[in-house]
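Re: the request from the purification team.
They wanted to know what the chain is likely to look like in 3D before they choose a buffer screen. I agreed to run a prediction and write the result into the notebook, where they can find it.
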Amino acid sequence: MQEGYIKFNCHWIEAGPVSPDHTREINVWRDKLYALGLIGVYDNGIGFGNISMRHRGNSFIITGSATGGFKHLTENHFTLVTGYNLEQNSLECKGPIIASSESLTHAAIYECSPETMAVIHVHSMKLWKKLMNLVPTTNTYVEYGTPEMAGEIKRLFRETHVPEEKILVMGGHEEGIITFGKDMDEAGEALLKHL
């Protein structure tokens, strides 16, 4: 489990915090998921779980790298992804913290689904095992935070009912589950109904 390790080439512009107006709605769900243990930190100090919300076009606000262990987040724990290239495994972000290691996976979902406004990534071994291959599932050989994972997301949008189900299991990322929706509530409820 290496959540929190940045695998993409990141051009990070250190800047002031994201507006609390943009992070308030994210934090409502982030606090719920943290309380349920679906976002957090392992005993080895590695954080897990991240959450994002579309900003404009394909730009989005996402929790920063290594923020899983914080009980509550402030606007200093978020960054704005301003651009990315899935094929080149590169990303640009602007804010007080570098973007989450799962940012390209979030980007692939926003790109595949223009109506999606929120993406949630959590960890749960019990739920991961329960949902494996029952909901759209990425190939087990594909690791998180890679161009191959972004390709798998695109494949699921082409070949499965993931646009309707709004949930997927990351087959090659133990415990990893992603939900999404037209707003934060829909993304959160898509997860909670399976708990």
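For the purification team: The helical segments are 20-35, 103-112, 125-131, 147-159, 162-165, 184-192.
Please add any questions underneath this entry.
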